[in-house]
Structure prediction request, 268 residues.
Amino acid sequence: MGGTATDAGYFPSTQPALEALNGGAADFATIVTSGALTGLTGTGDYLFLGVATESAGKGSSIVVPADSDIQKVDDLAGKSVAVTQGAAGEYIVDQAMLNHDMPADSIKKVYLGPGDAAGAFTQGSVDAWAAFDIFIPAAVNKMGARILTTGDEELTGKPDYPVLVVTRSFAEAHPDVTAAVLKGYTEGGQHLIDNPDEYLSIQKAANDFSPEQMQYLADYRLLTYKAYDEQTRAELQETIDSWNQIGTLSKKLNVDDIVFDVASVPTS
Prediction:
């Protein structure tokens, strides 16, 4: 097919990735389901292109100081939790309150980006932190945190899958290229799974991650993407309906309107 692509850079959380999509600085981005759905309730206009073949169940966790009196989710009532708004951190907090029959306002959410959240947690300005991704092992091994609950425990049946999204304008103008990008992610992800040392050595050289962070990458970042099928569409709709029930999503969404139909693109 030919052509070129430009890397728009690394985004440490969902919000800057969505801003890049909305502002025209990027056509594609990999984020998590919760953040992508939240973005669509605002000014975002993009499509779910691919979904990770496995859910990163421990991609989000609520952590507390190791010596905290908070021993179970119910103990968070009346406490403050650092949360990244509209993404994995907020999703696990909201779902945890629903699972444990806690009123929606029983936990004080303190909306902070991951860097500020880490600082607030370390300084004791918040009682807990809804950490995600590489920040989880950093919190546990560098900040004296203890994992209170994980996505595996709170998000059962409503997985917060990593997803690949594409702006609607690009997908409609270039459906063949859009399908080809998904194919590239699929094949590239499989290459990483088959050659993990290659990926991990690049990450180590670029970021000087700790052994614990490297293990996290090996466990939860080696994944590939596939087009949405009947099962993953149903799971996405279930997640949407769940978020409407919790009150996190401000409008209802239908998967048929927000998922790119790869099967409809002619193959050459």
Notes: The CA atoms of residues 24 and 167 lie 9 Å apart. Residues 14-53+160-263 form a domain with the D-Maltodextrin-Binding Protein; domain 2 fold (CATH 3.40.190.10).
